[in-house]
């Protein structure tokens, strides 16, 4: 073999490898692994199990019983559902706030009696009878609420007592008035309509249930009282600590439950006109079973109308079917008990393991094949060659500032930076020894930029895009954008606004690192290396925000080009710099400027000589580059290895490089040991100095440039002298 | 069934596939003793420190040096192990060339010359015990040996007994034997690097092996006798979850070994933080300019004091933020403990109480 003929074996090996890697790549391109995790993260996923259980029950008994799906059978069942569903809603409301109401059965019997007595004996009009019924049941709820909510007695025992007392009262009343109730015969069309009427074939009671369910759904999900109920159920102590009146909230749920039960009892009275003593017997158990079966947590804090109705349907189908199959009376209770046990077990197992499952499937890495890294070692002749030029940077605010991700200087040479505590800190010119808090925002400030009117625009991690006026007023510019069509995760809210720059027309172009993770989970995004980042454009003229570039492997630094016709942005985990055209013939298109960097790019800013400064926050490591090609390895690592042990991009060493409009690297500034200024996430040129920021640093660096224009400032350069 | 279980474990990360590393706790609770120890001298990768003719000497490359820098002996190859007999015979392990014995009068003899990686030597009354780290890899390629062994710590190491010109193998299939000691009951104790354990072997009945201590949290190196009973065990790198994980990931490991320079592997190391091309672990990110001492690290400095029963009693450390890493041997001289830090390029002296 001579030097000119390449090794044929090696060539075949390379082709084999590329075929295998192409197959892997294809598999990760075609199967959207990330969707499973996103679906599991949705709140409605917890309804899947009760829903399937309901469908299964209907299918089972539907196939066992002849005529189950006959119209008359369905209508009859739905009419019963209207009454029973209201009681389950009542139970759901109470257990949603962490309580329990065992008196629903007795209360139901009371409603039945009051409705019959007012209609049959006293001959009141329907509306008056309804009011009387609701008032009587609300009174029982009031009693429960007073004892449980205000006096803070045990819900279980207290409602057990009201169950017995109310039942005894109803029995005594029935004993005295049963005969006269049977003798009476109200002549009212409305009363008959409530009993047997339908609208478009839907029984009246079902319509009442539907309306009640909708109202309660809106109440629980869209209104303050509803949120309070859920908060109290979720954690009484936390609710109390956040200023919610726990006692009155619990009180309210019992009263509400009483009213709902009253409505159900009223419709039951109209339908059957039966003064029997067995009305509502054992109803509390059935309602409780239905509520839990639907997925409402017995401990509170997790409840919804949909869950209640699903549970009600399942229980009603089971109890009705057991009767229709001619089984002995005890079987119904046994079946109900067995179903409750099964549901409670499934519910607990699913709830307990859901987040485990979610945690293990949410992270879904893809192939991130990076081009070979250009050399950096001394003597390699590379533009990136290491040196120690940053070794002696002057330090500003050492130990006084934490996490200054970006730095900027105003027209009066004052130095601004963000801090971990959520402040914008200002170091005063000329010596930067004195510092003050310029403004408090609350989130971690990242990228900074001044606009034409000296407003300081800030990207705030977890919050969005804000600006601070020269009068130090903090104003929100935007925190949401248009949602990506067909996305499962709601990506309209900004999670990680990162860096920004402002075009000559005032439009703000800013980056969002990732839409799948919060700011402090950026290492997880580095494991995933999926195109989760995006570039957005906020237009202050009409206040609109829209997404202009998607699928960026961690969108980071943003800089408007010198001609104002394009925006340069850094793709941190793709190790590239790209250009997005905002004007001219190529408007709307993206092109790559630097295809392979030796490190992970962060902020980009303009230099005084018409070129660009770029911070490399960390260097690529061969071990990480190899892992980037192996998504399965990274996925298993994220599941089996503690995060502190994961391999990261090497962000303990970084550098600053300068590149021109075509993407040629002109020079590199290094601090090899990283002792003086360990991390560089940003740099800003100002009057012949380069100011350096770092996200995990406790200092700001100042490096004096030798050949730079000593009068150049970015404010004057962007917006002209004032 | 076992195949099914293995596949299930590999898919779910349970059982053998679970990544679990013992904690530094109890007798192994971290301190900064080795990091704060006095420097005796600096030398390039000092490896085995022994007492020879009443002086502390150590191997460094192909030389044996005194602490004042004088050369005691220059060997024809890199020195991989040292031992001194009570009658001042010096055994020198040579990289790729077996063992050379230097008599007090300067006469040289060679034994076990087929062993290419003698990692530890021990004189018995009438014999020399030689541990051969690996049959496949030379001393400098120890990382490759670990990576080839995978998660089971499989190795090709062996222990030999050389007695009056006769050489017998008394143990093989060891995962990098790196230290030797003689227990009180006459058994040989071997520190087995890739299996993180201390193994007792009866030289007369070598098929009987006993695990004296297992699941060490670090990769053990050489053993030395402690004064007043017990032993010293040097350890050069911590076991880490990430390395254990890579040892279970054949696909990644094979490509890493084939494509990446060993200094930049996900692997234990004699020294770390030498280049930004080394992999960085999450906990190793400097926060506010400080590297936490409890950060995960590829290298470490650890000396464990063992009791007569080879159970750890106490320990001395150089932690993630330190530099006195890669401790491969120690020598006790009264209240002084001489520590060879192969990664820190230093011989250190530690004052030990009592």
Automatic annotation (TrEMBL), chain A:
Subcellular location(s) per record: Cell membrane
Gene3D superfamilies: TolB, C-terminal domain
Residue stretches spanning the membrane: 48-69, 81-104, 124-148, 155-174, 194-220, 246-269, 281-299, 329-348
Any GO MF annotation of the entry: transmembrane transporter activity
Domain Strictosidine synthase conserved region as annotated: residue spans: 498-584
GO cellular component terms listed in the entry, alphabetical order: plasma membrane
Similarity section: Belongs to the strictosidine synthase family.
Name used for this protein in its record: Monosaccharide ABC transporter membrane protein, CUT2 family
Record organism: Lutimaribacter pacificus
Automatic annotation (TrEMBL), chain B:
Gene3D superfamilies the record matches: TolB, C-terminal domain (2.120.10.30)
InterPro entries documented for this protein: 6-blade_b-propeller_TolB-like (IPR011042)
SUPFAM superfamilies: Calcium-dependent phosphotriesterase (SSF63829)
UniProt superkingdom: Bacteria
Protein's recorded name: Strictosidine synthase
Species of provenance: Lutimaribacter pacificus
Organism classification: Bacteria, Pseudomonadati, Pseudomonadota, Alphaproteobacteria, Rhodobacterales
